[in-house]
Amino acid sequence: MAFPLPAHLTALAVTPAGVAVPTGDPSFSLRAWLFGQLGLPYTPLTDLAASLLVIGTFFIGLAGMVPVLGIWAERKVSARIQSRRGPNRVGPAGLLQSIADGIKLLTKEDLAPAAADRLLFRIAPYIAFAPVFAAFVALPFGPQATFEPRLAVGAFYVLAVLSVEAIGVILAGWASNNKWSVYGAMREACQIVSYEIPLGLSIVTAVLCAGTLNLVELSHQQAGGLHTWLVFRNPFVLVAFGVFFVASLASNKRAPFDLPESESELVAGYHTEYSGLRFGFLFFAEYAAMFVVGGVQTALFLGGWNDPFGGIGYLHHRFLTDPAGPNGWGLLAVNLLGTAVFVVKCAALIGLQMWVRWTLPRPRIDQVLYACVKVLLPLSCGLLLGAAVWQLFLPGRADVPWRDYHPYDRASWAGETGALVTQLGLTAAGLGVAGLVAGWVGYAYASGGRTKPRLSEAAPIDVQPGLTTA
Amino acid sequence: MTPAVAILGRGAVAAAQSPPAEVVLFYAFAGLTAASALAVVLSRNVLRMSVALMFALGGVAGLFVLLQAEFLAAVQLVVYVGGTLILIVFGVMLTSKSPFSRLDPTGGEVALAGGLAAVLLATLAVALLRPDQRASAALAAAAAPAFLRDGGDVADGVRYEPGPQRLTTDRRLVPEAKAQLLARAASDGRRPAGPDRRAFAAALDGLSVASRGLPVKQPMDPNAAYPMAGLGVALLGDYLLPFELASVLLLAVMIGAAFLAKARPKDGTAAGKTSAAASDTLRARQWS
C-alpha cells in the first residue's frame, strides 16, 4: 500500500541524493585544475598524495591550532569579563601562552593513581580525542573545500561521532578510581544521554525544511543572502537554533553545564587524576568539539561559508558556469574566501559560548536535567511538529539560489510569496535583535570605560623589578 | 575443492577485482571487530568488556561505511555506542559494590554460551557454504551475465553497475521479464555456468522484492551518495505500519520507565503511610 505524498514531497523523494552544486561543467574538478596549473600529472596516486598532504598540513594544523587559540581566547575573554588582563607575558598579547603551557604539559610526569585501572586510564583520553578529530571530516569549509562532499548523513554523522567522545570522558572518570572523578563521569553520562535528544530533534527541525542531511548541499541551499539562511526559513527553525545552542553547550560540557568538571565541588571532576599530555588531550578534545559544534551550527543554520549578501554563492555560480569554461583562479579565491567566512562564523559562535560561560552561574545537576527533560525536550518536540505542519502548507525554497532562482528577484519567488514574506520578516527581526544586543554591549563598553576607569593604569604586577613591559 | 579453499579462493578473486584500499580497510575493520569481540568474551572486567564492545561496534560501523551505508554506520554509533554503551557503563557505576566490578561466569553459563555460539557458527557455516548462497555472495563478480557486465549495458530495464546495489532496475520485474532475462543469460556464451545460474535467478528475485520499497527506482549514479530520501520515503510510505508499531513499543517502554521511576510508598508500615502522603503531595506537585 503506497501512501500518497504531496507533490512537492514526491518531487523531493525522487531527486537523486547527490550534491546540488550549481551545474556548469559537471566533470570540472578544482583539484585536477590545480594540478594542471602546477604542471603535475593528475593520477590516482598523486591525488592520494595530495590528500595526505592536505590532511597532514591543513587538517592536523587546524585541529591543533583550534584548541591552542581557543584556550588563549578563553583566558582573554574571562579576563576581560573579570576586569583582569589575562595572559600577557609570552608573545604579543600573550598569544604564545598556550604553546608554553603545552611544552609544560609535555615535560610533566605522566602519573596514574596506584589504584586505577591502568589500561582504561591510559586509553580514555585518546577515546575522547579521536572522535572529535574525525568529526572535522563532515564540515563544509567552502563550496569545494570539503573533505567528503558526498557524505549524505553529514549532520547525523557529526552527532554520532561526538557521542563517542562521551565514552572517553566517562571512562576517564571511572578508571581514575577516585570518587570525585566518578561523580563527574556519572554527571557526564546523565547529561549526554538526555541532551542528545533535544540536540537531534533540533537538527531534524532544520533538516526537515532543507530536505537533506548533507552539510555541503545545505550550504549551497543557503547561498542567496541572509534571508535564505536556514535559521530564517521559518519561525520554528529560528527557535530550534536556540535549542541547538543550549543543548550543544550541555553536550560539550561547557558552562553553565560543566558539571562533569565543576571545580567548586568535584576538585576537577573527571580529569582530577590526569596530568601531562593525557590531561592535554582531554582539553584538546573539549576545544576541538567546540569548533565542530560551532561548525555544524554554522552550516545548518547560519549559511555555512556564505556571506550575508550572497556574494560568494553568486561568484561561485558565475565562475563555474563561465561560457569560456570554469574559471579556476576565481573558484580558488572563492573557496579561500568561503573558508575564511566559515572560520569567522565558527569563531563568533565559540566567542558566544565563552561569553555565556563566564557570565552565568552553574546550576545543580537536577536543575540541568529538569531543563532538558521538562523544558527543552517538549519544546523541541513541539518545534518539530510545527515545522512539519509549516512545511506541509507553506514550504520554503529548498533549491540552490542563482541556479534555480534569483534570491533578490521578486518574480522568481512566484507562488511562494508566503515563504518570501516569512523569510524577510524573520531576517528583519533577527537583525533587530542582533542590533539591540550589539548596541547594549557597545553602550556598556563605552559607559563603563567612562564612568569607572578600569585597567587604565599600570597594575601592581606590571611594575615588578626586572620587567619592562607595560 | 574443500570448503575452506573455496572461501579463500573466492576471497582472493574478490580481492583481485576490488580496489586495493577497500580490501585493506575491509580486513582491518574485520580484524578489529573480531579481536574486540574476542576481548569482550575473554575479559573479566565489565568496564573493559564495554570498551572492547565499543571497538567491535566501531569496526562494524566501519564495515557499513565501506558498503556505502553511511546512515547505518551513524545509526550504529548513535544507538549502540552513544546510547546503549553509555547506559551499560552508567549501570555498572551505579550498582557495582567493588571498585572494579568483575564478572565470573559459572561453568554452566560457560557451557550454555559455548553451545549457543557453536549453534550460531554451525548455522552460519551451513548457510555460507551452500553452493547457491555462496555464489550469491559474490554475485557482482561472478553471477552477472556478461551482457549486463559490459559497461553498464541496459537490458530490459536491468543494469549491472559497480556500486552498493550491483543490479538496479527502473521498475518492478514482472515474471515474463525475468524469464526473458534468464533465457538471454543462458544463451550468453561467456557466462559462467552451474550454481551461478541459480544465483542470478535468486538475485533477480531479490531485486524485484527490494525495489518494492521505493516509489520510483532511479538509476544509480556512481557519484551519488546513499539515497537517504528513498530510505525516508520507504519508512514513512510502504513500511509505515511496522514503523508506527515500533514507535508504540518505544512509547510503552517510556511509560514503563516513568512508572518505575515514580516515587511510590512502601506498603503496610506506618513510615510507609507517612511517606505515602509525602509522595502523594510530591506527585501532585510534579503533575500539576
Topology summary:
The complex is a heterodimer of chains A (470) and B (288).
Chain A: H1 7-13, H2 30-38, H3 44-81, H4 97-107, H5 118-135, H6 154-175, H7 179-210, H8 215-221, H9 235-251, H10 276-300, H11 311-320, H12 328-359, H13 365-393, H14 417-451
Chain B: H1 3-17, H2 20-42, H3 46-66, H4 70-95, H5 107-129, H6 131-137, H7 139-143, H8 146-149, E1 158-160, E2 167-169, H9 175-186, H10 195-210, H11 228-236, H12 240-261, H13 270-287
Antiparallel strand pairs in B: 1-2
The percentage helix of chain A is 55-70%
Beta-strand portion of chain A reads under 5%
Spell the H/E element sequence of chain A. HHHHHHHHHHHHHH
Spans of at least 5 consecutive residues with low confidence of chain B:
1-18, 151-155, 208-226
Helix-strand pattern of chain B, N to C? HHHHHHHHEEHHHHH
What does this 3D model show about the protein?
- The complex is a heterodimer of chains A (470) and B (288).
- Chain A is 62% helix and 0% strand.
- Chain A has 470 residues and is mainly alpha-helical.
- In chain A, helix 5 runs antiparallel to helix 6 and helix 6 packs antiparallel against helix 10.
- Chain B has 288 residues and is an all-alpha fold.
- In chain B, strands 1-2 form a two-stranded antiparallel sheet.
- At the A-B interface, helix 1, helix 5, helix 6 and helix 7 of A face helix 3, helix 4 and helix 11 of B.
